[in-house]
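Example 372.
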Amino acid sequence: MADSETVTVDLGSRAYDIVIGEGVLARAGALMADVLGAGKAVVVTDETVAKLHLETLGRSLADAGIGFDTIVLPPGEQTKDFKHFEKLLNDLLELRIDRSSTLIALGGGVIGDIVGFAAAVALRGIDFVQVPTTLLAQVDSSVGGKTAIDMPQGKNLVGAFHQPRLVLADMGVLDTLPHREVLAGYAEIVKYGLIDDAPFFEWLEGHGAALVDGDMAARRTAVVKSCEAKARIVAEDERESGRRALLNFGHTFGHALESETGFGDVLLHGEAVALGMDIAFDLSVALGLCPATDADRVRRHLSTIGLECDLNAVGQGIVWDPQRLLSHMASDKKTVGGRKTFILVRKIGEAFVSRDVEDEQVIAVLSEAIAA
Ligand code: NAD
Ligand code: GLY
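Predicted structure in complex with nicotinamide-adenine-dinucleotide:
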């Protein structure tokens, strides 16, 4: 097997490659040389990732003759706020970046999102490269150009579409990722199978356990398949006016659960997505759209892998309230003209967008999930 393979996001003059494989971080400088040009490079990472992987990236940049500065942010979702965003922009301007500068986002989805947004607005837009270090970032957030920060009113409410120039996904960096974070990323992988690729879901039923336990070949296959799926959808609908909305499968419920738990360690984003996908299947069954056997099969797989599908097992002492969850959904940015957007399923591998679900139907399904 070659050291790496490449998936292209086909966006015409803004097309870019995703390089996926082993040893990619150690070759990052050489791989980036063409897109970096003559300007200053600034690596932005978080404290945890800096300790583990900054040295390898730095060495590869130095070996390729690329000079760079480094900015290190605190780890965690709390960093994706306006305060840290303002400080990041200040630090970048103090470093005297110019229009030819490139930001290098080394980290998970938090770093990718805040750095991508900074790149979108600094000097009215400069280039950035994604070097995702979590499974979630490798299969989802580093690809597709959605960048954002969180606001007190909700998650990812201020941001921009700004595509990276290159994405470098090294399978080796996942070896240092805590198992819980691996599972959270796995939820986003399952999502691709559930929305439009039943054979991939079947493959995951056979290989998912090995993947989360660290099997490098299984990880790489899944990252490549996920990036191919995302690249295909983004190339068709970059700004989410249609098909891209399917990538939000499980997210309407997931975001409501995350809002309720405070977007922290109680419930990670991917864990919330897993619960949300399970509830979306239940809702589809309740609406008579999807066979109950498919919902059972999905729940069985998520549970076997170690992803929680029981709302009552989340956190300690959380009392879920269907009405409160529904009100979080109303402030979701996918809500249009007061109609909430749901991604529903006809079966495994066939998802569609619906704005026709009544609040009572959602309340009924949530109440059942809470009572279970
Ligand atoms: P994260 O960036 O917070 O990373 C999770 C934790 O893992 C952090 O503590 C981080 O320091 C640590 N970490 C990262 N890489 C590591 C490594 N290799 N070894 C050890 N520890 C490591 O979280 P995430 O799950 O990667 O991303 C979640 C964020 O992504 C959310 O803010 C979500 O909104 C966003 N997101 C964005 C998109 C998009 O399309 N832009 C899609 C999905 C999710
Ligand atoms: N993660 C959803 C999207 O990129 O559209």
